[in-house]
Amino acid sequence: MSYRTGAISLLLFVIAVFSVKAASAVVYSLPELPEPSRYGNILIDRTATAHGVKAVSFSHWTHRTRFTCRVCHEELEFDMAVGVTEIGCDDIKDGRYCGACHNGKLAFKPEGNCVYCHNGDIDFRGEDFPAFSQDLPPDEFGNQIDWSEMMRRGQVQPRRYLNEKPPVATFDKSLTLEAAWGRIPPAVFPHKEHNQWVDCDTCHPDLFNIKKKTTEHFSMDRILKGEFCGYCHMKVAFPMNACERCHPGMKR
Ligand code: HEC
Ligand code: HEC
Ligand code: HEC
Ligand code: HEC
Ligand code: HEC
Ligand code: HEC
Fold first, then answer.
1. Is the pTM of this model over 0.85?
2. Which domains does the chain have, with CATH numbers?
């Protein structure tokens, strides 16, 4: 072992033993987080500005209080990425994509309301966030509200489907995922808490194998690049900064 790798493994060992929190600062560079009201907000501009209208604002927090992820990302077939789904404004008027709800019945219709969507403002309606969040269970990062606890308390009851009733998920095992390194408290993966938001095939087989500890390259480096857990836990679900929510043994 060279002097350098020796020093690095000693450093990692010291970090692992004495300060897991410090490990986040030293080993992992976490992306900077936006304001809580803006976490999960996106601007869609695949075609909008090229057609002379402003980019479309969309906020996850307002929508997920009313609908689970699966409604949009399974039933309505939006990609879990920005500017990928080929949404045309004609589709919307025909009742597809945003138009499945923005039809004047479930939510405002396109006609006469262009500026509610085409405003180019990633903070659109951000001023409503403090009133929305004030009595909700607090969390440290992301929207700074604990969405899982809100579900347990019944403070939000998002719809599971619009038209096609999905089968009830019966597999609710919580998995303990031991890290590849010694002394790192294992990560937990609770199926139950995920099943209420997403379908099995959001994760299996594309993100994870259906057998514990068989997914290749399943490490924090990759997760922090937006793969595996980071697919959702960097953008919409609580972010990777919340070490102890996934590694309960990392309590400070
Ligand atoms: C009302 C519809 C709707 C709901 C509900 C919804 N999403 Fe989305 N989501 C979208 C749309 C629209 C996009 C952008 C798609 C595009 O531009 O191709 C998106 C994009 C995303 C992205 C990519 C974001 C980025 O910044 O790269 C992730 C991750 C995501 N959603 C996860 C979730 C999760 C997790 C939930 C449930 C907690 C959820 N979504 C609920 C409509 C929704
Ligand atoms: C419910 C939200 C919503 C409303 C309301 C809305 N749009 Fe859109 N519109 C979108 C989305 C999403 C796209 C796709 C944007 C992209 O991918 O860049 C889009 C795309 C467009 C485009 C780009 C070309 C095309 O057809 O795809 C034009 C032009 C447009 N909208 C005009 C309008 C006008 C005019 C109104 C008001 C009559 C309006 N939109 C109302 C969501 C909306
Ligand atoms: C599954 C149903 C559903 C889909 C799909 C959906 N919305 Fe909404 N949206 C709602 C409801 C319900 C509201 C709140 C009621 C209202 O404002 O009319 C809302 C509100 C909004 C608002 C008002 C501000 C806010 O956040 O409360 C905007 C902007 C918006 N949606 C944009 C979009 C865009 C853009 C899309 C497509 C990319 C979309 N929505 C897809 C149901 C939906
Ligand atoms: C949010 C992502 C996600 C969803 C949704 C999900 N799983 Fe999993 N599942 C995982 C992960 C992560 C593993 C462990 C993979 C690994 O360690 O390589 C796993 C493992 C499993 C295993 C193996 C368990 C064992 O002890 O070896 C089964 C069986 C399974 N899932 C079934 C399901 C079923 C059925 C559903 C739908 C009801 C579902 N999963 C939904 C992420 C998910
Ligand atoms: C497809 C999206 C998605 C993926 C992939 C995903 N999660 Fe989640 N996870 C969620 C959502 C949505 C919640 C609800 C809480 C929130 O939104 O902040 C959640 C909640 C959790 C919770 C909190 C449960 C509770 O009871 O408080 C833990 C722990 C968790 N996830 C761990 C993981 C781990 C570990 C992985 C990777 C093996 C993973 N998740 C992958 C979407 C996802
Ligand atoms: C969304 C859940 C989640 C969060 C948040 C999270 N981790 Fe992890 N972590 C995991 C998973 C899953 C693994 C891999 C377990 C396995 O190998 O099966 C892991 C593995 C690790 C490992 C072992 C090395 C490796 O790359 O596999 C270390 C060290 C670690 N995490 C530290 C942290 C620190 C420090 C934080 C906070 C900055 C953190 N984790 C936040 C889910 C998470």
1. yes
2. 37-130 (3.90.10.10), 171-252 (3.90.10.10)
